[in-house]
Amino acid sequence: MIRRLLSGVLVSAITLTLPALAQPNNFKTLTIDDQTSSGMMMGSTGGTTSLPAVVSNSDRSERKCLGFGDPNPDHTIVLKKPVSTLTLQVDSGGSDTTLLMSGPGGVRCADAGSKKDARLREKDLQPGTYQVWVGTVTPNTNREYRLIVRTGN
Predict the structure, then answer these.
(1) Is the pLDDT of residue 142 over 90?
(2) Residues 38, 83: contact at Cβ < 8 Å?
(3) Which of 104, 97, 102 lies closest to 66 in space, CA to CA?
(4) What is the mean pLDDT of the segment spanning 70-83?
């Protein structure tokens, strides 16, 4: 009985420590390759899950990760080749949004400040799968948005 209990605790602990790995996205996947260098994905915010608890409290540049949303990523971006610059811009009409992106090289976070849409600009990204969360500073805030993704300057 103790062995079963310990096994259940171990499985629960492993499940709780791996939430950002290979989860299905809520909306759409965008693949960046030789034919596609930009795109737009639609979505909506809302949720009570603390996104830093799902991904990380801070990113690889020590920027604080903020926001509330769904525990599953909202979008997935697949880079088929190295990208010198990748820009993600949330357009919700001026709501206070946040961005978190997890993939090769670590976690990246962005918050533009009060009543502004988040924008994330990263350099020298390697090929791979990047999971993206669009959040809001306040839990359960439902906002429709467009996520604009482009490569280059």
Answers:
(1) yes
(2) no
(3) 97
(4) 96
* Of 97, 94, 92, 100, the residue nearest 145 (C-alpha): 92
Please indicate whether residue 115 or residue 144 has the higher confidence score (pLDDT): 144
Q: Where are the alpha helices (DSSP H) in the chain?
A: 2-17, 51-54
Assess contact for 138 and 68: CB atoms under 8 A: yes
Q: Can you tell me whether residue 58 is helix, strand or coil?
A: strand
CA 44/CA 36 separation, integer angstroms: 24
- The one-character DSSP state at 23 is P
Residue 4 has pLDDT above 70, yes or no: no
- Six-digit token pair at 123? 């350099």
- 3-state secondary structure (DSSP) of residue 12: helix
Tell me the pLDDT band of 3, cut-offs 50, 70 and 90: very low
CA–CA separation, 21 and 95 (whole Å):
28
Token pair recorded at residue 83: 């990208």
Positive/negative CA dihedral, 48, 53, 55, 57: positive
